[in-house]
Amino acid sequence: MSDSRKQQARKDLFATIALGLIRGIGSTLRLKIEGFERFEQDDHKLIFCGWHGKSFIFANQFRNKGYWVIISNSNDGDIQNRVFTKLGYQSIRGSTGRGGVRAALEGVRKLKEGGTMAITPDGPRGPSKICVVADLDTLVGPGDLIVVNDTKVLPARLVLQRKTGGAAEVLLLEKRSNDSRLWEALVRPGKKIKEGELLEYFGKRVVRMGPRTEAGDTFVVEILDEDPLDLISRIGAMPLPPYIRGSLKDQDRYQTVYANKPASAAAPTAGLHFADDLLERIRRTGATIMSV
């Protein structure tokens, strides 16, 4: 394989991993923009802006709406472009040094045609204050509210077998039914496994493959058990991000101390910095801690 093809393969791999994490973490977030429904109904021309590395929460929230997005002509931009495209966006490529003017003019044309734009600015974010989580109790007091995401991470990575004897892997991303039976999932090998195929765990049929979702690279799967969450907890593994190598002997190490509701395929990682003693110090300041 040539170097260029290897580079493209790496970008495809990183984009797939990023998409899985985005969809997993996105399923744990509750984001509301006041008045946004009114703008959509009135057919306003909208422009969203987000910085590099900060745009994926927005991207997941407004996926599959056909919005246009301007993405830089860089290696990082190549990966970002793959992710945004899979989330249902239409892209224009351009950055400060390469094609920026052309991309801006193309964006204006799309706005005039009634499109909605999303722009990832290129360049430094400027100075910002640095907050060490362990010192958070020194920055809050009476009247302050801290909201924590009490989602508990499911062992959502299912290593299974096909009837042919081949290996299969299912990464559960987001529930599609209230009884936790239907899920949106990433599946490997996605191109080979057919709709209706049954996947097994040591001879027991545990997952039925459904159709592809509107995203195109995920599937609807059905958990074949009377208690789906119990089955997942028994046979699943923690879907660790790529920067955590190896396996977890104690799966609680990938949970926040306030985790409560099993629902997520990825931990709200900022919350892993919070310990019980820090939460208690925050409460002693008079600040309020609430869960969502």
Shape: globular
Strand order of the largest sheet: 7-8-9-12-11-10
Question: What's the average pLDDT?
Answer: 78
Query: End-to-end span in angstroms?
Result: 48 Å
Radius of gyration from the alpha-carbon trace, in angstroms: 21 Å
Helix segment count?
7
Name the beta content range: 15-25%
* Helix and strand composition category: alpha/beta
Q: H/E element string?
A: HHEHEHEHEEEEEEEEEHEHE
Share of residues in helices: 25-40%
Profile the largest sheet.
6 strands, antiparallel
Residue windows where pLDDT falls under 50 for at least 5 positions: 121-130
- Care to count the β-strands? 14
Oligomer: single chain
Structural overview:
The chain has 292 residues and is an alpha/beta fold. Helix 1 packs across helix 4. 27% of the residues lie in helices and 23% in strands. The longest helix is centred in the first third of the chain and has 24 residues. A 6-stranded antiparallel beta sheet has the order 7-8-9-12-11-10. Strand 10 and strand 11 form a beta hairpin. The protein has 7 helices and 14 strands. The chain starts with a helix and ends with a strand. It is globular.
